[in-house]
Structure formats: structure tokens, C-alpha cells
Amino acid sequence: MYSIYHFFRHLHTIKAQLISAGDLETTVYNEKICSAKGSGIFPDMVIRANSRQAFLSGGELIEVKDSKSYGVSSFNSTIPSGRKKTVDLPAVIRAQMKKSGDNADLLTERDVYYLVRGRLEKSGVTKVCLVHGSFFQTIPIEELIAQSFIQVLQERLTQTGKNLPDEVIQHLTEIFSEKSGFSRVRDVAGSSIKLRFRVMTEVKSEGNILNTKQYPLLADNTLSLIVPYDSKNERQTAWQGIRATFPKVLRRRLRCRALKHPLNGYFYVFQDILRR
């Protein structure tokens, strides 16, 4: 059986390397747990999926975010999300999964996790968080894109002193809500260059999981797994996952606390110490 909890257990066994490793992605990759590894594309890793009868589905997607500060590095490849449709995975990732015996279509959607590391070299402290993508995605991606576009439009209307009917603005909001519309390369006749608008995302203070003032529960020199914890099923799955992967003697060392996100409900933190 494989799952994000097995991956967290793997991180627990290499805690010393999490502090010193220069290349986090290569250091944490485990071929037994993972069926594919991205190279400059999302996701960086794919957890193997389990049979439909298993109480843990597995199959999670992991993106690595490494920083030499307590700020989460920007998301350049994809807008952060809590879940992603399997059909949207890159062909090269699906090919790797198939080659390793992992059925890419066993799950129609997969949970997304982000392995976030922050290091303050002068202070000699490190913080590592394996966090569910819903910590960053607090509204639908389509709404985020559409409302951002409308902000640009309204700023230009104000600057130029022009107006548009409300129904036109509403239509434009609906039209400009898909990231794919911005990510394609545009070839304009008569131009010797092509143009592509690149969508990049950065975390606000509410989403900076490394910020100790914002989230004091996530202390220096700790390794944490942060999972959604709003429903009874989510709470049950979280504890089942920990019990299935951590022996009782190690479970006793984990600090287990609920964390209130200011914009997106409750998460549960399973935390251990990196340095002793």
C-alpha cells in the first residue's frame, strides 16, 4: 500500500538529509513509493495508487517548493490546487506511471500536496511542511483567474475614463476564466516573435505556511504533515493513515494539533522534530 502517509514516513526516516540536502527533490524521491518523477513540469512526484478496495487511495501528486527563506517560493508551473484531474497530467508523466506499473486512470482525480522547505542559513534553522494543496487554493481557480482579469480591466477603464456595460464585463469574466487561454503561444501575423502570457502565483500572508508569526504551531526545526480536517471522513482517514505507517512508539513522538486556516477551515498537523 502507498499513500502520502507512507511518503511522510519516508521523510521521517531521512530527517537529517532534509536539513542538509541541497537538491530536495532528488533527496526525497523514493522509487518504491513513487511511480513517476517530473523534470521541470508538474508534478515533481507521483505516489503510486492503490486498488479501489484500499482504505487509502494513494496516487497523490507532489510538487516541491524549496526556499532559502521563510517565504514559499512562487508557483511557476501551475496554479496551486487541492486536487487535479488525472487526464490533465502531462503525457511524459503518464508514460512513466505506465512503465512502472501504476495505472494513471485508476483515479479520475488525485489529491495534490506540496513539499515546502524553508531554511534560514544564518540562524541555522529549517522548516519542512508536506501540505495539502487546499491550504493554498481557497477559491476555485477559475474564479481566481477571472477576478484577476477583471481587476486589470477595471484599472484600465479607470485610467482611460471609459466605461463598459455591466453585462459586457460579466461576459468577459466568464470568457477569461481558463488558464489555458493565457498559456498558449500566440502567433501574430507580421511579427517576428511569438507571445505567451505566463501565469505565476505567489502566496499571501494567509498562505505562507512557513511564517512563524502567522502559524506559530509550525515551529523551527520541525517536519510536519498538514492535511484537511473539516469532515468526519477526513479526520478518520488522517488517523488511519498515520496508524498504518507509524509504529506506536513513533506515533507517541508526533505532535498532533488542529490548525485553523483563516480562509479555508481546519487542517490537522502531524509534527516531529528535525533536530534534537
Beta fraction: 15-25%
> Structural class given helices, strands, pairing?
alpha+beta
What kind of sheet is the major sheet?
9 strands, mixed
Identify the overall geometry.
globular
Q: Helical content, roughly?
A: 25-40%
User: Could you tell me the radius of gyration in angstroms?
Assistant: 21 Å
**Succession of helices and strands:** HHHEEEEHEEHHHEHHEE
> Mean of residue pLDDT?
90
Distance between the termini: 31 Å
Structural domain tally: 2
Oligomeric state of shown chains: single chain
Count of alpha/pi helices: 9
Low-confidence stretches: none
Q: Tell me the total number of β-strands.
A: 9
Write out key terms for the chains shown:
alpha+beta, 30% helix, 2 domains, nine-stranded mixed sheet, 276 residues, 9 strands
Report on the structure:
The protein is an alpha+beta fold. The protein folds into 2 domains: 4-136 and 203-273, no CATH class; 142-183, no CATH class. It has 9 helices and 9 strands. Strands 1, 2, 3, 4, 5, 6, 7, 8 and 9 form a 9-stranded mixed β-sheet that branches. Helix 1 crosses helix 8 and helix 5 (141-160) packs across helix 6 (166-175). The longest helix is centred in the middle third of the chain and has 20 residues, at 141-160.
Topology (elements, then pairings):
Elements: H1 4-13, H2 15-20, H3 24-28, E1 34-37, E2 45-47, E3 61-67, E4 83-85, H4 91-99, E5 109-120, E6 125-132, H5 141-160, H6 166-175, H7 180-183, E7 222-228, H8 232-245, H9 248-251, E8 255-260, E9 266-273
Parallel strand pairs: 3-5, 6-7
Antiparallel strand pairs: 1-2, 2-3, 4-5, 5-6, 7-9, 8-9
